């Protein structure tokens, strides 16, 4: 879930993908999230079956609470992403309004997954290391603690890439991110209308100014002739 979800998050941010069409990148983003969701469901089923087979209580630790919460919100995120951003039925203004929420919730879910993994490996070490105990810092404990630090560094790098403006796709490509099939890019219809109106006003102003200038020139010439 950590590796595939992180790939789905930064798939738009990789410079060598900027040459690909936005529609292709949307399908890749949705496909990676779907794979991550399937793997998360399979892993949760495996955990519950293992607990039931060993008579271990379910859903008693903070690790399990936060993990289940992350999976539930991730499923909602995936469903709304398909319904609003992938399918061409949602209106443009709804996509524009939900896009910041979609991005923020995706990053929050990813950070929650990292935290769940850290709590899970710590819990496993406490239960598994008996002789020597976890507190004695055996090699296994050192190895897994280093793994936890690498997870934190990895998560920080993904969040940094996802939050830096210079990692975004170029503006001309970003303008097409919310375009429905056969529609206009998100925000460009109103902007083009305003631009067209502004250009029309400026064009009328230039025409009127040019006409007034020519009229003044004619009056000046007429005045000069009358004076001569």
TrEMBL record:
GO terms for cellular component: apical plasma membrane; lysosomal membrane. It catalyses: Cu(2+)(out) + L-ascorbate(in) = Cu(+)(out) + monodehydro-L-ascorbate radical(in) + H(+); Fe(3+)(out) + L-ascorbate(in) = monodehydro-L-ascorbate radical(in) + Fe(2+)(out) + H(+); monodehydro-L-ascorbate radical(out) + L-ascorbate(in) = monodehydro-L-ascorbate radical(in) + L-ascorbate(out). It is a multi-pass membrane protein. GO terms for molecular function: metal ion binding; transmembrane ascorbate ferrireductase activity. Pfam families: Cytochrom_B561. Residues 171-228 are annotated as: Disordered. The chain crosses the membrane at residues 27-48, 68-89, 101-121, 141-162. Its cofactor is heme b. Residues 199-228 have a biased composition (Basic and acidic residues). Residues 1-163 form the Cytochrome b561 domain. It is found in: Apical cell membrane. PROSITE patterns: CYTOCHROME_B561. Keywords: Cell membrane, Electron transport, Heme, Iron, Membrane, Metal-binding, Oxidoreductase, Translocase, Transmembrane, Transmembrane helix, Transport. Homodimer. This is Plasma membrane ascorbate-dependent reductase CYBRD1. It comes from Gavia stellata (Red-throated diver).
């Amino acid at each position: 879930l950590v590796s595939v979800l992180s790939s789905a998050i930064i798939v738009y941010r990789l410079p060598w993908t900027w040459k690909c069409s936005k529609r292709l990148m949307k399908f890749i983003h949705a496909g990676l999230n779907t794979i991550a969701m399937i793997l998360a469901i399979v892993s949760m089923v495996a955990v519950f079956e293992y607990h039931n087979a060993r008579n271990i209580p379910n859903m008693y630790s903070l690790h399990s609470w936060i993990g289940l919460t992350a999976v539930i919100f991730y499923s909602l995120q995936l469903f709304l992403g398909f319904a609003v951003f992938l399918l061409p039925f949602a209106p443009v203004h709804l996509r524009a309004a939900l896009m910041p929420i979609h991005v923020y919730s995706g990053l929050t879910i990813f950070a929650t997954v990292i935290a769940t993994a850290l709590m899970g490996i710590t819990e496993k070490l406490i239960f598994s290391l008996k002789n020597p105990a976890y507190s004695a810092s055996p090699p296994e404990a050192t190895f897994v603690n280093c793994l936890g630090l690498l997870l934190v560094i990895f998560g920080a790098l993904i969040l940094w890439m996802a939050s830096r403006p210079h990692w975004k796709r170029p503006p001309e490509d970003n303008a097409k991110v919310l375009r429905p099939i056969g529609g206009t890019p998100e925000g460009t219809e109103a902007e083009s209308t305003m631009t067209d109106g502004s250009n029309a006003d400026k064009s009328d102003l230039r025409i009127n100014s040019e006409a007034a200038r020519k009229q003044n020139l004619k009056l000046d010439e007429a005045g000069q002739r009358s004076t001569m």
